[in-house]
Amino acid sequence: MIDTSFEYLLLICSISVFIGFLEFKLKLKVFKYLPAIVLIYIIFMIIGSNDLISFTDQIKDNYTNLKNNLLSAMLFLFMLQIDFKSFFSLSKKILLSYFFSVISIVLAFIIMFTIFSYSSSQIGIFSTLAASWLGGSANMIAIASALKVSEEDLGIALVIDTINYSLWFTFLLFLSKYSSKINRFLGASEQTKVLENIGCSCTIGAKKYYLFLAISLVVAFFSVSVSKIFIIYSSSTSMILIATTLGIIGSFTRLKTINGSNDLATSMLYILIALIASKAHIESFSNLYVYVFAGFVVLLIHAFIMFTLAKIFKLDMFSIGVSSLANIGGIASAPILASTYNKALIPFGVVLALMGYLVGTFVALFLAYILKVLF
Description:
Blueprint: H1 5-24, H2 30-33, H3 36-49, H4 57-79, H5 84-88, H6 92-115, H7 123-134, H8 137-146, H9 151-176, H10 179-186, H11 209-227, H12 235-250, H13 261-277, H14 288-313, H15 317-328, H16 334-341, H17 346-374
Helix pairs in contact: 1-3, 1-13, 3-13, 4-8, 4-11, 4-12, 4-13, 6-7, 6-14, 6-15, 6-17, 7-8, 7-9, 7-17, 8-12, 8-17, 9-14, 9-15, 11-12, 15-16, 15-17, 16-17
C-alpha cells in the first residue's frame, strides 16, 4: 500500500519515465497501435482501481499542487513551438481548409449532441475529446482541468480518441491513393506549391532542459498564483489562459529556436496522465461502446461537411486531408499523411499541427460554453 507522498511521486515518475523510454529510445512497435498516454492511463487506472494507493490528505494536497504546476509549465512549453509566421505563409487553400476543419469539428460535436440527446453530464467528456481533436493531448488535459472533468470521464475521452483517431488516420491514408480522382470530382487542381524551411526549429542544437525547466517552473508559479486573484470562469481556467498566453508571447522570442522544450513538455504530459489515472476506477467505464460510436458519428459529420465545402470552394484532397488530420491526429500523424502526397509537403503538416496547440484550448472552451447553453 502506497501511503506517503514520496512513494506516490516515485511510482508516478518512474513508470511514466520508463514508458517514455520504451517509446522514444527503444521505439517499440506497440506504440504505433497503443499510444503511450493510453498505456500509462491503463496502468495507473488498474493500480488505482485495486486500491494500491491510499489517498491521504498529504497525497491529495501534493496531487493538486503538482497537477496545477505541471499543467501550467507543460502548456507554456508546448506554446513555444507555435510558428505564426510559417502558418500565415501557407497557401490560401490550406488556410481555408484548416479553418473549415476547425469549424466542421465544432459543428459535428453540436450535431452529435443533438442526435444522441445528450445532456450537460456528457459535456465534459466530449469537450475534452474536442480539445484533443482540435489540438492534442496537452489541450485535452488543459480542458479537463478547466472544466473539472472527472478522472473517469477523461479516461473515456482517451479511449474514444484512440479508437476513432486510428480509424480516421487509416481512412485518410487510403484516400490519399485516390487523390487525383477525388480532386477531379471536387473540381480542384493539385496542390503543387511547396514551402521550405518552415515549422519549428526547436529540434536543432543542444537540448537545454535546465533552462526550460527553470523558466517553465517560474511561469507555473506565476500562473497558479495570479489565477487565485484574477478568476475567469474558474481559477483553473484562469491558470490555463495565463500559461497559454505567456507561451504564445514566448513563441515570438529566441526561446522558440532552442532545442528541448518539446521533450520536457512531453515528459510533463506523461506524468500528468499518470496522476489523473491514479484516481480513476475501472467500474466507472459503463456504456463505453456508445461513446465510441458517438465519436465515430462526429467524424462522419466532419467528413461530410469537409467534402461539401471542398466541392463548393474547389479545395484539393491534400489540403482538406492534412488540415483534418492536423486537428484530429496532431503532430504525430499529419506530417506522415503529407508525405504520402510528396515528402516535400511534410512541413505543411508540421505547421498546421503546431497551430492546434493554440486553437485546441480556446475553441474547446468555446464549444463547452455553446453546449452548456444549448443542452
